[in-house]
Amino acid sequence: MAVRAQAPPARLRASRARHGELVVKGLLGACALISVATTIGIVLALFLPAFEFFQDVSIREFATGTEWAPLFEPALFGVLPLVVGTLSVTFWAVLVAIPLGLGAAIYLSEYASDRTRKLLKPLLEVLAGIPTIVFGYFALTFFTPLLRDLGIELDIFNALSAGLVMGVMIIPTVASLSEDAMAAVPRDLRYGAFALGSSRMKVSTRVVVPAAISGIIAAFVLGISRAVGETMIALVAAGQQPNMSFDPREAVETMAAFIAATGAGDVPTGSLEYKTIFAVGATLFVMTLILNVVSIRLVERYREVYE
Q1: Which residues have CB under 8 Å from 133's CB, separation 6+?
Q2: How far apart are CA 125 and CA 95, in angstroms?
Q3: Are 65 and 77 in contact (CB under 8 A)?
Q4: What is the mean predicted confidence (pLDDT) over 53-63?
Q5: Spatial separation of the C-alpha atoms in residues 113 and 110, rounded to whole Å
Q6: What is the pLDDT of residues 210-252, one digit of tens each?
Q7: Is 132 helix (H, G, I), strand (E, B) or coil?
Q8: SS3 69
Q9: What percentage of the chain carries pLDDT values higher than 90?
Q10: How far apart are CA 167 and CA 222, in angstroms?
Q11: What does the alpha-carbon distance between residue 140 and residue 135 come to, in Å, rounded to a whole number?
Q12: What's the CA gap between 161 and 164, in Å, rounded?
């Protein structure tokens, strides 16, 4: 009995060339290339002057020094005070943004009615549109006097006010992204938990949040990255005193605030003092890069895929 050979599967082909689709494909590819080229340009513009800086100042002195005074004589180039100031302000910002942002996301996703959600979510996101300079002066002229009235002894410029107000600023980022991640969790998981007699609180905290944990982690990391790189609030409210102190009542200087203040000053272009901007910027870049790499690993590890 002869066996008939199977014909190869037919391939779907367009009857004629789709020039519009080719144009769209080319435009999308160009957008991708522009994004990559912009990133490469930023890296080169940042690290080439930083490399020149480290030819005059050792990396060991820069990374381990505890005094930062590049504009004074003798010049001191220890970046640790700026790192400590950045971490101090970021800590207080995260302490506000993560619990309040996650709580707002759980309420909007699991408790609020559709009408309430449509009203509250845009109002919450409006907070993200307020200029950061406004938050900075709010921290300086309102929040610091308020904390003093409550009996907390603070310097006029301090890390506590700057960090707390910065946390308020990034609440919409954490809340909106976390709520989107929770909304993507299939309703069947909720219905199954309710069918087993679980309360709404247990469903929210033990079913929905673990199922959306990868998106929530991404929201946290984005909020932390924004706090690390925030400039105007730190420049206005935290001060410009590079102190090696985690005491939030004292004035500190963050890396982003130093870059903004020095770049707008009268430092001669091309001088060693001017190149400190790029050295500090490269340090900030590496910190945020490490943070994002860790977040990608966490997201990949805890990602849940549903059919």
Answers
A1: 232, 236
A2: 20
A3: yes
A4: 87
A5: 8
A6: 888 888 888 898 889 888 888 889 988 988 888 888 888 898 9
A7: helix
A8: strand
A9: 20
A10: 12
A11: 9
A12: 5
Rounded to whole angstroms, the Cα distance separating 154 from 144 reads: 7
Residue 57: φ, ψ to 5°: -120, 130
Which domains, from first to last, does the chain contain?
Answer: 76-302 (1.10.3720.10)
User: If you average pLDDT over each of 67-71, 161-165, 267-271, which comes out highest?
Assistant: 161-165
Of the candidates 85, 138, 111, 76, which has an alpha carbon nearest to the alpha carbon of residue 247? 85
- C-alpha 215/C-alpha 269 separation (Å) is 43
User: Which residues lie across from 69 on neighbouring strands?
Assistant: 76
Burial status of residue 273 (CB atoms within 10 A of its CB: 0-12, 13-18, 19 or more): middle
Q: Are 276 and 75 in contact (CB under 8 A)?
A: no
Question: Which pair of structure tokens corresponds to residue 204?
Answer: 């929210």
- Residue identified by tokens 């060339």 is 17
The kind and range of the H/E element at 73 are none
CB 83 within 8 A of CB 283: yes
Q: What is the pLDDT of residue 152?
A: 86
Query: Is residue 12 scored above 60 in pLDDT?
Result: no
Q: Give residue 77's pLDDT band: very low, low, confident or very high (50, 70, 90).
A: confident
Is residue 302 a contact partner of residue 213, using CB atoms and an 8 Å limit? yes
Phi/psi class of residue 12: alpha, beta or left (left: φ > 0; alpha: ψ in -120 to 50)? beta
Angle, vertex CA 44, rays to CA 40 and CA 49, nearest 5: 165
Q: Tens digit of pLDDT for each residue in 168-195?
A: 999 998 998 898 889 888 888 888 888 8
Distance CA 110, CA 102 (A): 12
Longest dimension (CA), the chain: 99
Q: What is the pLDDT of residue 14?
A: 54
Distance CA 211, CA 4 (A): 51
Nearest of 245, 263, 281 to residue 81 by alpha carbon: 245
pLDDT at 307: 56
Whole-model pTM: value is 0.83
